[in-house]
Amino acid sequence: GENVEQHPSTLSVQEGDSAVIKCTYSDSASNYFPWYKQELGKRPQLIIDIRSNVGEKKDQRIAVTLNKTAKHFSLHITETQPEDSAVYFCAAVEIQGAQKLVFGQGTRLTINP
Amino acid sequence: GAVVSQHPSRVICKSGTSVKIECRSLDFQATTMFWYRQFPKKSLMLMATSNEGSKATYEQGVEKDKFLINHASLTLSTLTVTSAHPEDSSFYICSAGPLGTSVETQYFGPGTRLLVL
Q: Tell me, what's the pLDDT at B31?
């Protein structure tokens, strides 16, 4: 089945700087890669996603890049703000059998004022 | 639109008792709902896929007799933790997608925090 690895586990950046979180996946058949933001005790919120037929997608300060050959995708947050502090999870859709989302381990992002 | 609710939001129970958690899609119908468990500072781990009108599909290592899932309607799935023990204490989150959509479209519930004493 699909395996998703996420790095780093924690990330601390100065307000205004950029943050990058990386994920790798194992199943080359996976074709959908969402990113979720989860604040403490809250539900995960989809912030951006990318499909395998696209190399990059951007939404204001957030962007995601996908390298299908290397089987990795990254989340880029520019001009970080204190409200960006949260735990971020990447995920990939496992195609084989009953489809399901497989999540990475999560990255705790802290934006320092 | 696309709101998923969970009840209760938090529950404390004694070891050995059973706890039922409800997951409802408020403004759409869902053939499939997913149940996740999240331990503190850990990722979401899929426990089972709940299918309306049929048996749930459990992930490897999840005891189906301990975590009973019932999906009796297109808007409600329940997870019952039977004979709960302290190690079952966790954050349980469900998700659902509207009819006709794939697993890519999932709306998460707010979660239920279970504490077993």
A: 85
Residue B100: which pLDDT band, with cuts at 50, 70 and 90?
Answer: confident
Tokens linked to B109: 């519930």
Answer whether A93's CB lies under 8 Å from A103's CB: no
Question: Looking at residue B59, what DSSP letter applies?
Answer: P
Q: What share of chain A is helix, strand, coil (3-state, %, to 5)?
A: 5, 60, 40
Tokens 């009108």, residue? B53
Nearest CA in chain A to B42: A105
Q: What tens digit of pLDDT does each residue of B16-60 get?
A: 999 999 999 999 999 899 999 999 999 999 999 998 888 899 999
* Tens-place pLDDT, residues A96-107: 777 899 999 999
d(CA B22, CA B110): 11
Q: What distance lies between CA A39 and its chain's CA centroid?
A: 15
Q: Chain A residues with CB inside 8 Å of B111's CB?
A: 41-43
Peptide bond into A34 cis (omega under 30): no
Measured CA to CA, the distance from residue A73 to residue A76 in angstroms comes to 10
Whole-angstrom distance, CA of residue B84 vs CA of residue A20: 40
Chain B residue numbers with beta carbons less than 8 Å from the beta carbon of A34 are 104
C-beta atoms of B46 and A106 within 8 A = no
For B102, which of A89, A99, A102 is closest by C-beta distance?
A: A99
Those residues of chain B whose CB sits closer than 8 Å to some CB in chain A are 34, 41-46, 49, 57, 91, 93, 102-104, 106, 108-111, 113
Mapped onto helix, strand or coil, the DSSP state of residue A82 is: helix
